[in-house]
Amino acid sequence: LRIAVLGVGLIGGSIGLAARRRADAHVRGYDPAAPVLEEALARGAIDAAAPDIAAAVRDAEVVFAAAPVGALAEVVRDALAHAGPACVVSDVGSTKRLLAEAGADERFVGGHPLAGAETAGVRHAREDLFDGAVWYLTPARGTAGVLYERLHGLLRRLGAQPAAIDASLHDRLMATVSHLPHVLANLLVTQALGALGEERRLPAVGPSFRDATRVAGAPSAIWTDIYLSNRDVLITTIDELSRGLADVRATLASGDAAAVSAWNERARAARESLLGAALVGGPVQELRVSVPNRPGVIAEIALALGRAGVNIVDLALSPSQDNRQGVVSLWVGGDEASARAEELIAALGFPVVRA
Amino acid sequence: LRIAVLGVGLIGGSIGLAARRRADAHVRGYDPAAPVLEEALARGAIDAAAPDIAAAVRDAEVVFAAAPVGALAEVVRDALAHAGPACVVSDVGSTKRLLAEAGADERFVGGHPLAGAETAGVRHAREDLFDGAVWYLTPARGTAGVLYERLHGLLRRLGAQPAAIDASLHDRLMATVSHLPHVLANLLVTQALGALGEERRLPAVGPSFRDATRVAGAPSAIWTDIYLSNRDVLITTIDELSRGLADVRATLASGDAAAVSAWNERARAARESLLGAALVGGPVQELRVSVPNRPGVIAEIALALGRAGVNIVDLALSPSQDNRQGVVSLWVGGDEASARAEELIAALGFPVVRA
Fold first, then answer.
1. Is some CB atom of chain A closer than 8 A to the CB atom of B177?
2. CB pairs under 8 A between A and B
3. Given A38, A60, A153, A181, which residue has the most CB atoms within 10 angstroms?
4. Which residues of A touch B224 (CB under 8 A)?
5. What is the predicted pLDDT for the residue at A225?
6. Which residue of B has its CA nearest to A245?
7. Best of B69, B128, B187, B227 to disrupt the A interface by mutation (most A CBs within 10 Å)?
8. Are B227 and A281 in contact (CB < 8 Å)?
9. Is the pLDDT of residue B299 over 80?
10. Phi-psi category of A285—alpha, beta or left, where left has phi over 0 and alpha has psi -120 to 50?
């Protein structure tokens, strides 16, 4: 299989590594940054370096455009212009309607692997980056079936789970579960700093604010493009949230306790539904453990659970103001595992409760 | 020292335990639920059980009203009615202007320990619950100095860090860093469920949504009261957020990349300022580690850091869709500790990057 990768950073480099080692592919790479291209070659992410897009895609059977979102449309256009008639061209951008124009070409299938957002650069590229990761594909009505099948099969060999999704639904989902939380994180930290006034001292109020603002001020070099490329949908999503805020404001203003409770219970049901839908292995349960916040405590708990084969799906640590104690929330899949985890943690002497 | 605790759940019970063991106090307890009162006695959280508030506060020098928020005002009123002229009466409620009426009495000082929100019940009470925790006090202009000093000294002996704060500022801070993030978590899960449509399958998009929605649908029995008791301020805070959303909406609509970047950079600066203000031990740094998500990996990393004396201030695990791999974000205090942590993690063979 002959593959071209246009942009050999974390994602492009990982595609190259996985394709060479797992799909026995010959990978030609192109990157506008010569040192990046050299590093990709040195790391074995590509077999050969091409001087431009035309040279990279010549004779290729599959092309991945893995450029930053802002440059993607042009890279895809160039790739389609130079690729052969039986070559499938895809991309890895985080929004998909942007490439709707390319979708008119039967050789194009939009793509978005849900992996690797947390690091960047070919030095972090790895063969197993996509193992088990959902890789969204947004075929258009005109997409050639044989090309779609080839891409799908390759992604499976890379370790990913390809999943077809409508481009509009994809972008709406991303706006809701990624872009909007980033916007809110930014607004919350700015607002909190304002509320602090002269004090500029943040009280230790448990995990809600800390968790909600972890992604505040995510790298502008990446996020400005992401926000703008999906801005139409993001604006719709912001409007929807604004209506939700207006509703809850009215409920609070009414002082109707039953209405506030009912609103909160709907959210509880929604969260449970989402957790159940998102995670493999049955409904997830939360355990809360009070611990002294000294080095080694998390390890002690994680080891005890690990020895018993209980996997921690998610965890969050909420230290006190002076980091001397805290509460660890652990999410564990299924009744049996959480009961076992509760026993094990109690046996270590830490107060534990199922939330 | 003679102390009365009105409501002997997690907070009241922990006050009793700490006061008896650390301040050599005699603690009389009252609770409307007889079994709770018995359990508090059995656990050694109180010396004696009182049949009513009047009996509990008789001869007391310090009274803590530790009832649920909805019942607090009445409990405080009863306590002031029956307490002696040289007794200081305080509470542990999460909003403070609610008790402004009580503030007219020179014996009353509002209080709010930032501890214990994650669990409930006297069985989780512990002597060290308040160790290092900020304990906000909201004295009024008329508060008697000698009574304030007595309360302050006792809280120090309980292990807490008492900090005087204006009641209005307190409530605004809580609205911003706790109540509003809870409201947003509720709105986000509801909105995401709607966006999923028929699919009801949540893509694995990294930590932002998961983190922002951990507290969605927090227990209605507690949170309905909290929302309503602080609703005036919470509404103001919601309005402020709505204006922020309208601003960012306009910026997005303009398509002005420089303006979007500048907005994002302001949030980045705000987050750094808040982290620096909140945490002891210098500016916190984030390390991101790619790991296979098998039992024991977190333990391995935490142990390696623990052995080297590097404390983990905060951490977040973002598993992939199938829980087979993930990225762990670790927050570590200071340049030296984070450099050491990076070395140690790299030595374990996990790709690590400073975020």
1. yes
2. 463
3. A181
4. 257, 260-261, 264
5. 86
6. B238
7. B187
8. no
9. no
10. beta
Burial string for A36-73 (b: 16+ CB within 10 Å, else e) reads bbebbbebebbbebbeebeebbeebbbbbbbbbbbebb
CB A352 within 8 A of CB A288: yes
**Amino acid code (one letter) for B183:** V
pLDDT tens column, A294-338: 666 776 777 777 777 777 666 676 665 555 667 788 877 777 888
Give B 273-292 residues with CB within 8 A of chain A: 273-274, 277-281, 288, 290
Q: What is the Cα–Cα distance from A303 to B298, expressed in whole angstroms?
A: 8
Q: Which residues of A touch B340 (CB under 8 A)?
A: none
Judged by CB atoms closer than 8 Å, whether chains meet at A217 and B271 is answered as yes
Of A309, A310, A313, the CB nearest to B319: A313
Are A298 and B295 a contacting pair at CB < 8 A?
A: no
pTM for the model = 0.74
- Say whether A100 sits in a helix, a strand or coil: coil
Contact A90, A63 (CB under 8 A): yes
Angle between helices B220-229 and A257-278 (to 10 degrees): 130
Do residue B315 and residue A318 have CB atoms under 8 angstroms apart? no
pLDDT at B55 over 80: yes
Q: How near does any CA of chain B get to the CA of A144, in Å?
A: 25
pLDDT tens-digit profile of A80-133? 999 999 999 999 998 888 777 666 788 999 999 988 655 678 888 999 999 878
Q: Which of B245, B243, B187 is nearest to B215 (CA)?
A: B187
Cβ-nearest to B177 among A209, A216, A260? A209
pLDDT band at B281 (very low <50, low <70, confident <90, very high): very low
Interatomic CA distance for residues B355 and B349, integer angstroms: 18
CA distance B352 to B291: 9
pLDDT tier, B342 (very low <50, low <70, confident <90, very high otherwise): very high
Condensed to tens digits (0 to 9), the pLDDT of residues A158-191 reads 998 887 788 888 898 889 988 999 999 999 999 9
Cβ neighbours of A167 (radius 10 Å): 21
Which residues of chain B have a CB within 8 Å of the CB of A239? 249
Residues B192, A176: C-beta atoms closer than 8 Å: yes
Amino acid at A179: H
Give burial (CB, 10 Å; 0-12/13-18/19+) of A198.
exposed
